[in-house]
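Team,

Forwarding the record for the chain on the shared tracking sheet. I've put the sequence and predicted structure together so nobody has to dig through attachments.
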Amino acid sequence: MNIHKVEKSNTVLTLVIIGNLDTNNSRLAQACIDDILTKDTHNEIEVDFSKVKFLDSSGIGALVYLYKRLIERERNMYIKNATGQPLEFMKLLRINQAISIS
């Protein structure tokens, strides 16, 4: 799994996740999440799921961790381009009630 950071503007940072966001890869994502929380100043974080085919509970945990920490810092996060199993899993767990999914 890879996470590419794409700066859309001074206020919006897009994280493009490439690969599965599962138990093994959630640990790898943690370094990127910590980097965003401590070094990044964008007000909005957009997580692009267009290249994610599988999401498990560890991946959900990583997303929720990022979301909570951003909210504490008065920053926003949303998920875009989620389809298939990742989208269905997020809906099943009602993640869309807390994090905007488009």
